[in-house]
Amino acid sequence: MIDRYGDKKYLAKYDLCMDFFDKFDLKINDIIPVRNVYMISTDKGEKILKKVEYTLDELKFIYEVLDYVRSKFPRVINFVKNKSGHIYTIWKGDMYCIMDMVNGKECNFSNPVDLDIASKGLAEYHLASEGFKSSMNNKYNNGRLIDVFKRRVQEMEFFRSIADIHEKKTEFDKIFIYNSRHYIREIEKSEKLLEKSCYYKLCSEEDKIAVCHHDLAYHNILINDNKAYFVDFDYAIIDLKVHDLCNFINKVVKNFAFDIEKTRLIINSYCTENTLSDRELEVLYAMLNFPNDFYTISKDYYTKRKNWEEEVFLDRLKRKIRYREERKEFLEEFKDTILKK
Question: Angle at which helices 56-69 and 112-129 pack, to 10 degrees?
C-alpha cells in the first residue's frame, strides 16, 4: 500500500521555481509527480528531481558508489551536474539533485521472468561493486549484525514495557503483547544462528562483500530489454552480498504466501552470474529468520516514526501476524531443501 497522502504532503514541500532549473541549464516542458519525486520533461530529455533529506556526505557516498560500479555495470542512475559542476544544488535551504530518467517497467514480483532478470542483475551489480572502499565508517555494516540483533531484542523488550504500562491499552498494544514473546525468541534464534555460522569469517573475505542496495522494492528495479536497472540508492551500505539477497527475498515472498519456489528461483538465477557458498546460505538463513516486518511495524508504532492513523498501524500489524505460520513453514523448507540440514 503506497502512502499517497504522505507523498502528496511531502511533494508540496518542493520549490518548483523556474529560476531553480536555470542552475542546471534546463528548460522545463512538463513536471509530473511520481511517489516522492518529480519526473521532469526538459529540453535535454526526461529527468528526475529529488529533494535530498540526508547529508551531503551521504549523497557523495552514493555518487562515489555509482561512479565506481558504472564501468562494469552501467544500469544505474546517473546524476546531472549543475552549471557549477556539482551533483546537488542548495535552494532556499533545501538540497536537491537531478538525475537522468531510467526507462523501463517496474519489476513484477509475480512474474518469474522478471524475478530471473532482477536476480541476475543484482548478481552482476554486486560483482561490479566488489572492492569499493569508503571513508564513511557508518556505511560499513559487515561484522555488526550480531550486535544489531542483540540491540533489537532490547528494543522489543522496551516496546513491550511501553505497551504494558498503558492504562488503557489499544488493540495494537494487546496484539503486540500477545505476539511479542514469540518474535523476541525468533530474534534470539537469529543471533544464535549467526554465532554458530562463519559470519565473522565471511565478513573478512573481499569477494563476499558488496555495496548493498538495501531497498530492493519492485519500484526500484526497472526492466528494460530483458535487463535489470537499479534506482534509488538512498539506503546503500557496504555489507555481505547475502544482506541484499535477504532484503530482496523478504520483499518478494511476503506478498506471495512465502513461496519457497520464488526464493529458489532468486538464488538459482543469482548463481548464474555470481557465487553463493554453503557458508553464505547459512548466514542468509539466519538473516531471513529475523522477523523484520514485525520488528519494523512495532518500532514505527512505539517510537512514532510514522505519522499514520491508528487504523493504519493496526491493519499492517494484523497483516504481518496473519502470515506467521506461512513464514514458519517457509523457513523450515529453506533449511530442509536449500541448506539441506
Answer: 100
